User: What shape does this take?
Amino acid sequence: MGIVIPTNEEVLAYQGLHLYHSGISNCSMRVRMVLEEKKLDWESHHLNILKKEHITSEYFGINPNGLVPTLVHDGVVIIESDDIIEYVDTLAPFNPLTPECEEGLAQMHYWLRKAVEIHMKAVKIYIYDRRVGKTMAHDSIENEKYRSLQTNPELLEFHRRSTSTGFSKEEVLKAEAILKDCFKSLEQVLTKSDWIVGNSLSLADIAWIPLHFTLSRLAGFSFESYKNISQWSERISQRPSFQRGVLDWWPAAMEGK
Assistant: This one.
């Protein structure tokens, strides 16, 4: 589990559930949806990443990668969204989102791992190239500040590429191919069931629906040829957790651009 010891000791005194998150972050969407599905009370610490509100020494003292989301529960800090949603699902017996059988659990973890695996090498490259990179461009002062705070080599390199040279056509095409391959597999899975694992909503669905939402809404990725995925997305979009965890936090400024 992605538990870290924060250098910003203020959060060690927090009681209850506190979530550092952003409306536009697909990883934050997952956590908010699970919190809503579990009907848990939580305190919001919203960071507008488009305005670089996460690039501060205070926040890097909580999450050493400077990414959202971060969950703080009674002073315990968890920083990876897949770990966070599994953890939150254990906090209340209401509406379990983890399969009980071993086969279902293995399938759920496969899809959780797959979402993590493609995040940097496909999802972020595609979205940054098509849309967000232009919005989140840093000036020289912001770049220097980020480099002074960030110690993760992979994130430093991604930041350098996304804010300076950009990604090559070959890299973007490769990212698109990875996404198409994943969604082709998901489309096949959804021919057999309404949900990714078993006969009910699970953490696997909640891990993937924000990818569908942000790729289509932000980057113009077409799901027109994925009939089963489109129907699956429609089912999930009717849930109150999607309204409260995704749509209610979605920045209106991102529409119509």
